[in-house]
Amino acid sequence: VQPPSFRRAGLLVYLVVAGTISAYFAVSILHGSMPNLHGMTAEFHALLAKSFLLGKTDLPIAPDPRLIALPDPYDPKANFEYRLHDASLYKGKYYIYFGPVPTLVLFLPFRAATGADLQNRVAVPVFCAIGFLCSLGAFYSLARRGKWTLPKWLETAVVVALGTTSAAFVLRRPVFYEVAISSGYAFVMAGILALVHALGKNDRAERNSILLSGLFFGMAVGCRPHLALVAAVMLVYLLLRAKGARISVVLFAAPVIFCAVLLMLYNYARFDNVLEFGVRFQVGATAPGFHGLATWYRFGRALLLYLFAIPAIGTDFPFVHPHLIYTLGDRAPTVWDYDSIIGLFTGFPIAAFGLCACVVLRKRYFGASDVGGGIRSLVSYLCVAAVLVLLFLSATGWVIGRYTVDFAPTLVLGGCCAITMLWQSVRSEPARAVRLFQISVTAAVAWSALLNVAIALPRLDLIRKFIGLQ
What we know:
The protein is mostly helical.
């Protein structure tokens, strides 16, 4: 449901929204033409939908007998020619190690209705568009409740900022990894929207929204298990906010627990272990298994790259490119071992406001623009949840651009709210200060938009390697 402020938005804002979503689909279709990984299919979710219709949980692909005959089928050097890349091999069957929610909510209904397979390159932009629209809805709901003054230039900047988060990382190569990440993004934003909608409502409407929010956050866990951190922080928020009204906490926690129980039953049906997601049985470029937390060096390196990885300036269009990193060790790198990333601070300056929201969101800065402090509190908890996800990913030692979608959009949303609340005070300052604020916000958003183009257009040398010209 569009809030009144959204219905009153100018034509330019509507064009930005439509243009951003259209660009998402265009980028995904343009750069989604890689149908396989290592010579094999990557349409795992479409395959899983077929299996679900048959009452099975394994993928309908029989492992190569030569893979099974290997002394160690999980040895990445030995199984390269025979493996279904990054599938989980257990008791002679292939499984997908991500949760089943994307398949259940999109791929399975599509196949049941049409009899055809839904491709990753379509599903990823669908989830990204849902996440984008939900983030817009959450922002406008907060703006209406906080009675924020929202001039068209700031409204347009917010729309562009929310539409040019790091989601481009999952759109330029939509494979099954990106399906899980983009669907997690969509459900987290849907959960935030429902939780925001609960603010200031009557008891019945608030409880319904909280129940729906818990369901969305629980489904996000079924896409990316570590998004349970977001659900946990939101539960703490409700616990502290509800005080005597414990029913809100119960309504939120019940669907989250329900989704978690179903996910554990699904894990047991696949791997005979309720806590096993299949990572220990993965046949990919590295030895399978969870290798524990990273060393302090790798943790620090990962955190610095996630925050401060500097884009590279080059001669190829669009002349600014993501920071290229080598992700694996122990062997000579190939094109598959590289990934790219842009740091939050260097690539998405609006997110920096979200990262600092717990510090800057203080009453003396925002005065009466926040009714009862509920908005500031919610935004702060959202940013805390995103920071915890960032720290968890850094603790694994892995630095991959697409992982930023797990936390960057939430921080961008928090940053947009912080900037808008700051504007309520800045607009009454001298004209020079107002102009400086406008220029700073506009430049930051324009920079993020440019970098999204850079993310969507890989470097020409990488493209040449992918198509075999080098």
